[in-house]
TrEMBL record:
Family under the similarity heading: Belongs to the beta type-B retroviral polymerase family. HERV class-II K(HML-2) pol subfamily.
Organism annotation: Lynx pardinus (Iberian lynx)
Domain Reverse transcriptase: from-to ranges: 1-49
Protein name: Pol polyprotein
């Protein structure tokens, strides 16, 4: 499991794109069902995390 946090929406989008690109280069797959991108609240390892 990976958690990426950012200070702004733009930074979140850019960092997410960079991370997904690098994971692809390394041969890792990302589950579209599990992805929670640029949200103020997410479930991570069973815990709800908020801003």
């Amino acid at each position: 499991d990976l958690l990426l946090a950012a200070d702004s929406l733009e930074s979140c989008k850019t960092s997410t794109e960079d991370l997904l690109r690098e994971l692809d280069v390394l041969g890792y797959k990302v589950s579209a069902k599990k992805v929670q991108i640029c949200l103020g609240s997410v479930i991570y390892l069973g815990y709800q995390l908020r801003e």
